[in-house]
Amino acid sequence: MASLIVRGGHVISPEDGLDGELDLLIEDGTIRQIAPHLSGTADETLEARGQIVSPGLVDIHVHLREPGGEISETLESGLRAAVAGGFTAVCPMPNTRPVNDNPELTRHLVERAEELKLARVFPIAAVSLGSQGEKLTDFRALVDAGAVAFSDDGKPVKTSALMKEALEKAKALGAPIIDHCEVPELSAGGVMNEGESSKPLGLRGIPNSSEDRCIDRDIEMAHATGGHLHVAHLSTAGAIQRVREARSRGLQVTCEVTPHHFTLTDEAVARYGTNAKMNPPLRAASDVEAVLAGIQEGVVDAIATDHAPHAAELKARPMSEAPFGVTGLETALGLALTQLVHPGKISMDQMIALMSSRPARIINKPLGHISVGGVADLTVFDPDLEWTYRAAEGCSKSHNSPFDGWKLRGAVTATIVRGRIVFRR
Ligand SMILES: [Zn+2]
To answer: Above 90 in pLDDT, residue 1?
Structure first.
């Protein structure tokens, strides 16, 4: 029986009422005791004095590129990046090549992750076959194989009719439909936000209305069906307002925001080029303010990275041709602490909930807790450690981050999954 004591850390688990200096005894992947100054020994001891011990972080939106995109990331490199960033569970999106629209591939991802013994993997399967927007996948079989949600991410669920049917079918299985909200004809050809910043660069813009209009449609379908709509990578003031209103009407509508959308505005494109090209794009300062307000008041349910690695040769293309997306697993916690917690915008408790228990609830997994008898998935971090992020030294196979060279305050020091230390700084 493998045992581990995590000693002297400041244990914080808001939803379990834990906030104090405590020791944790872990045996065979399960938390057995939580108390100050545990006596006795274990096979291994992790000294956590001066550190925060939180529930393992859960990222419900990542792209791990396997199969088909191994030039940019593999399951192994992506999961190494995950645990280096403090994530003990991640949800890979289905827009791989081939698309994860079948139980065999879903099962393969889960099994391969179990072999790798890094972070847990909970796949998000496609809403439609090939994500082509024509015919629904077999939701029941996909859930049985391990899928926790459905999305045609990379693009929106194609039609209202398909969205309605998907929400109905997913509701019966207790799973959310995660939509990448965009009206393709409004954003066609766009490479950055449409606004004051796009004009001098001579680049074609993606208007806020592209995102807002699709959310209107989706909320209408959530209302019609009573299904669970989860809005991916929300980026506009209008989108926050729509989610806020839908929730006040009692609809099951949740949303996530990414660290890049709460940290940067569209002005970053002039500086970082294709490393600031993502979809949805970085928005205007007024949108970032609205997103921050949404985080503060609890309208935003989760911080998710939308980790989107792309090999250097792909991002070296001109702005109009380079693929959308930035990496994010290894900078998310540092950015959340630096941008949100240290300036006093949200509390440590709020940040931990936004990155653990609340995203876990969206995918209906009993994660994001620290309790006796519960799983020993833990993130240990030093909230004040100052460090410089160097993309080239990271674990991800790709380095496409606008935060390369940024000084951050707060770093992961150890990540524990199923009672095993899988990362140590
Ligand atoms: Zn997306």
So the answer is: no
Q: What is the pLDDT of residue 7?
A: 97
**Band of the pLDDT at 40, cuts 50, 70, 90?**
confident
Q: Which residues are catalytic?
A: 306
* Helix 285-297, helix 237-248: angle, nearest 10: 30
Q: Which of 324, 352, 329 is nearest to 403 (CA)?
A: 329
Task: Return the CA Rg of the chain.
Answer: 20
Owner of token pair 């299985």: 173
Q: Tell whether the torsion through CA atoms of 242, 180, 262 and 56 is positive or negative.
A: positive
- Can you tell me the distance from the alpha carbon of 321 to that of 250, in angstroms, rounded to the nearest whole number? 42
Q: What is the DSSP letter of 422?
A: E
Can you tell me whether residue 57 is helix, strand or coil? strand
CA pair distance 286, 208, nearest whole angstrom: 12
- Both tokens of 245, joined, read 């209103």
Which residues make beta-bridge pairs with 30?
A: 27, 375
State in Å: Cα 377 to ligand 1 middle: 27
Closest CA to 290 of 234, 217, 328, 336: 234
Digit-coded pLDDT (tens) for 244-278: 999 999 999 999 999 999 999 999 999 999 999 99
* Beta-strand pair 57-62/30-35: unpaired
Residue 16 and residue 370 in contact, taking contact as beta carbons nearer than 8 Å? yes
Residue bearing tokens 């207790």: 174
> Which three-class secondary structure state does DSSP give residue 112?
helix
Q: Which of 384, 377, 324 is nearest to 355 (CA)?
A: 377
- Residue pLDDT, tens place only, 93-106: 999 999 999 999 99
Closest alpha carbon to 406 in 302, 272, 304 = 272
Measure 169 CA to ligand 1 centroid, in angstroms.
Answer: 22
57-103 pLDDT, tens digit each: 999 999 999 999 999 999 999 999 999 999 999 999 999 999 999 99
Distance CA 70, CA 424 (A): 25
Q: How far is the CA of 279 from the centre of ligand 1 (A)?
A: 6
Cα 232 to ligand 1 centre (Å): 6
Euclidean distance between CA atoms 191 and 198, whole angstroms: 9
In the sheet where 253-257 sits, what is the strand order?
Answer: 124-125, 149-150, 177-179, 229-231, 253-257, 302-303
Across 200-319, where does the E strand assignment appear?
A: 205-206, 229-231, 253-257, 302-303
Ion ligand 1: residues, Cβ under 5 Å = 153, 180
Q: Residues 224, 225, 226, 227: is their CA dihedral positive or negative?
A: negative
